[in-house]
Design brief:
Largest sheet: 3 strands, antiparallel
Helix content: 25-40%
Shape: globular
Strand order of the largest sheet: 1-2-3
Structural class: alpha+beta
Number of strands: 3
């Protein structure tokens, strides 16, 4: 979970997006971005957001046996419920959309 003193500004993230989107990579930078801004998305109504690897040790009942669930970030809503967020950073290799 990011605290307010560690959060990057929108202009910081825009610069990171410009630089990172030019290069192929594992997309971890996008997970950092989404984790940092998730609580600022009003529609998600999140109290906090954590990367999966930081969240699941405290929630062992939700851990699967070495199976990748595709969850990158877990958001906790103000009502105590959780949402799973998956991040994908793909380079358009031609073609449409």
């Amino acid at each position: 979970m990011q605290n307010n003193s560690q959060m990057k500004s929108a202009s910081d993230w825009l610069e990171i997006i410009k630089q990172k989107s030019k290069n192929a990579g594992d997309g971890k930078w996008l997970e950092d971005l989404v984790c940092d801004i998730a609580c600022r998305v009003p529609e998600w109504n999140l109290k906090k957001a954590m990367k999966w690897q930081d969240w699941y040790p405290a929630n062992p009942d939700l851990k699967s046996s070495n199976k990748d669930l595709g969850i990158d970030i877990v958001g906790e809503r103000y009502d105590g419920s959780n949402i799973a967020i998956q991040c994908k950073a793909r380079q358009n290799l031609g073609g449409g959309g």
